[in-house]
């Protein structure tokens, strides 16, 4: 009987010790690419960005595109490599979508990209300008 109580105690309180990391860096699905060549030449399938959100060093992008189910889509978040230093430092990115699905359904997806490689030394915040969105987002680190 005491053994069961001990096991229950360890399982219950042990679950608190394995809590999730608050900065969510390990939760990002993809890594952001910094490449002027890919920024210019990567596929640019039609999409609409619905929402941008930063959680830790993950940029979450909610977007919609046409297709069958979106399972074959290839996504990349690509930084142009240029850094604008007018006041607040800025980077320009675009979400690249390779979509060869031949269906007409509208599919909405949410993906996350690791953005810590965009940080600039000597700064603790950065404005991210997303080319295929009218939005910008402030990344504080």
Write structural notes for this entry.
- The chain is an alpha/beta fold and 141 residues long.
- The chain has a single domain (21-140), classed as NigD-like, C-terminal beta sandwich domain (Immunoglobulin-like).
- It is built from 2 helices and 9 strands.
- It has helices spanning 2-17, 36-41, and strands at residues 30-31, 33-34, 48-55, 58-67, 74-84, 90-98, 105-114, 125-130, 136-140.
- It has a 5-stranded mixed β-sheet.
- Strand 8 (125-130) and strand 9 (136-140) form a beta hairpin.
- The radius of gyration is 20 Å and the shape is globular.
- It starts with a helix and ends with a strand.
Brief account:
With 141 residues, the protein is an alpha/beta fold. Helices cover 16% and strands 45% of the residues.
